[in-house]
Amino acid sequence: MDRYQRIEKPREETPINENEIRITTQGRIRNYITYATTLLQEKGSNEISLKAMGRAINKTVMITELIKRRVGGLHQNTYIGSTDITDRWEPLEEGLKTLETTRHVSVITVSLSKKELDTSSTGYQGPIPANQVKQWTEYDYEGRKRDLLVLEEADVVKEGVEEEVESADEAGEEVGVMVEVVD
Predict the structure, then answer these.
(1) Contact between 119 and 71 (Cβ < 8 Å)
(2) Is 105 helix (H, G, I), strand (E, B) or coil?
(3) DSSP-assigned states of every residue in 54-80
(4) Which of 68, 107, 149, 153 has a CA between 20 and 30 Å from the CA of residue 49?
(5) From the centroid of its chain, how far is CA 131?
(6) What tens digit of pLDDT does each residue of 63-122 get?
(7) Secondary structure E strands in 67-172
(8) DSSP letters spanning 7-56
(9) What is the pTM of this model?
(10) Structural element, H or E, at residue 117
């Protein structure tokens, strides 16, 4: 296809509902999670919908699981399908014809709701147990809030960190630790 260039088609601008989040491969996971939890906790939405296509599907599943572990009592319903996308290619050289290719792209829609969804649906998952839910907190490098791993009873291998965890535990503090695994 090096003798062709793809022609961008004007897209149909479909309006996006406030409770709909379209996940892309370029978007940052933290931003999606922050927006979703804001909708569910602060703006009073009872249901959100995460939508993705193609390579963004695995990111959507990961985001869904992280949201469920930040906001308790969420029911999930997952719908999967596919859609056809037609690309138009114009030749860069004389004598070649314009081409159209059609590709099948997988699509996922995940609905998360505070209210019970259709339990008979094949994509239904009930809420996770409350002991698996950790409230969303954020701390960045300047000391403002950002998501941290909370250690309750930690087996820390690296020397020096174990004492820090024990002293913080005695003081009743939560400890955030970044772990790097090296083979």
Answers:
(1) no
(2) strand
(3) GGGHHHHHHHHHHHHTTSTT-EEEEEE
(4) 149
(5) 21
(6) 999 999 999 999 999 999 999 988 999 988 888 899 999 999 999 999 999 999 999 999
(7) 75-91, 99-113, 124-125
(8) EPPPPP-PPPPTTEEE--SSS-HHHHHHHHHHHHHTS--SEEEEEEEGGG
(9) 0.69
(10) none
